[in-house]
Amino acid sequence: MSGCEVVVERGEIRVSGQDFGYVEHRPRSTEVYPPSEPLPPPVQLGEITEEELKQYDGSDSKKPLLMAIKGQIYDVSQSRMFYGPGGPYALFAGKDASRALAKMSFEENDLTGDISGLGPFELDALQDWEYKFMSKYVKVGTIQKKDEEGKEKTEDSTNTGEEASATTVGETSRSVEEKTIETTEKKDVADGDAAKEE
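Given the sequence above, the corresponding structure tokens read:
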């Protein structure tokens, strides 16, 4: 297209005699895009089950849009265009998407809060997502943990104080057992040392 000439005149565009039609130039205004309704303040849910979290997947526009990372539930309603129905991350809504976020995966089997077996790079990626959510969204609750049999734990847990203090966010039940054994061994050693001193 050497010798091609582009002419824009009174809203018309012509290239070397070719006519591309009339182009209307309108300034952006609030008339074209009406202001959206303000979001209601986040509702604190406390501790809920994964099943209860599913009802906040965006299918009911009157309910907040929620998702969880590492058992912490965040209100992502302000980003409905991303996490709401039709959005690119809609499949994460109403779920703990920890594994999927860590792996940058959209696979159904990765839509879980189970992060066991993830490598250091995946755990770093998950940590980045968690920091992003903590800084951008309001935490509104936590997912109720399950016991070894897969049942939801209740407030009157049978853990001893030592076991409960050994549990931190993200630890597996195996590490809790190890810490309990380690604590018991330390206590036995301390009791043995005390007996030797007497």
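Residues 166 and 176 are 6 Å apart (CA to CA). Try to locate this feature in the token string yourself.
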